[in-house]
Design a protein that fits this description.
This protein is α/β, with parallel strands linked by helices. It folds into two domains: about 325 residues, Rossmann fold; about 40 residues. It is built from 17 helices and eight strands. Helix 13 links the parallel strand 6 and strand 7. It binds adenosine-5'-diphosphate and magnesium ion.
Amino acid sequence: MAGSFGEVIENKRIVVCVGSGGVGKTTTAATFAMEAARRGKRALVLTIDPAKRLANSLGLDDLGHEVQEVPHERLEAMGPCEAGGRLFAMMLDQKQAFDEMVERYARDPEAVKRVLANPLYVQISGTLTGSQEYAALTKLQAFDESGDYDIIIVDTPPTAHALDFLDAPKKLSEAIDSPAVEMFRKMQRGGSLSAVGKTGAYVFKMLAKFVGSRFLEDIALFFGEFNDILGGFKSRAEEVFALLRRKDVSFVIVTSPETMAVTEALYFHQRLIETGMPFAGFAVNKVHDNAAVELEVADLASQLAGLAKVRALELQPVSLRLASESLLGAHEDLQKLAVADLQAIDRLTEVAPGAIRRQVPFFNSDVHQLESLARLRDFLFR
Ligand SMILES: Nc1ncnc2c1ncn2[C@@H]1O[C@H](COP(=O)(O)OP(=O)(O)O)[C@@H](O)[C@H]1O
Ligand SMILES: [Mg+2]
């Protein structure tokens, strides 16, 4: 097992950043890619939902779904770069990734047109269970096969539950094989209600009363047409799942020290182990500074009184005292958070003592500029 995230970057081809929503997956994925590029790799970050300003900073404004190269000068602004290092970024457009899959698996160009124009497809391509994760994975597979990159860092969707990512291929297969979908397929193939048997026909008739028979026919038509494509999705899902188990793949679990996030990180860790996915370590982001101060209100008040800016305000001693009291109170609250953070982080260490674990502080501002990723880098790759 690698001893540092630096080693992960040096030796792996695919790094997948997973974790609960809002913990810093996208930011961490961008930081990994930036650092890999600085170390001389052709690095691609496949990002999913970058905050708008980070997207701007990576040059991904409205271009979407196209690989963009981050200008080399911007990379050099983050410290010396080894020769050959290049940073590429792509924002996954889920709908477009799905359309591409339809094009690949449909029988003929006419079928592609019909499917893409079907109102049901327009609905379903965005909402199918696990579709976003699945689209990301197939895109990853294509980039991996292209050989254009030394390393690909994969950001994962902003799902509330980190597990959705691992379950996506299975969920998709299950949905495709579900009796309901099968019934619509039969109906389309048979061309009439009798194809679905007595019970099926009864169900459809009842349904038609509510939603109209035209709508049901649209659905049946859609599943008939979509049959080949779904079959393609399904076999592909299995391949994609196998890809994630490769030795040159590495999962980084990103988490904040919040109890819920840590609980989910631990569960996710267990799932990775169970399913034979290669786990590298934890990136614990947004950790509160642990800095106890032994300061009395009177000491702080007199220190404040010594500051030129405070003197200029000409405050009464009682105001200074009150201000010092609230400052120390606020610090004490932060300190409580810092202690709770340490306890949460201990839970990670207990479960995976040998895993890499790096902590990144909770900065006092968001991390939206490419340049500010260097702050994360200093902690992750220390
Ligand atoms: N260490 C940090 N300190 C302060 N803000 C952070 C830190 N890491 C990330 N952020 C901010 O938190 C927000 C969520 O980060 P993001 O990477 O988009 O999370 P995720 O992809 O897991 O949903 C962003 O606004 C980002 O700038
Ligand atoms: Mg994100």
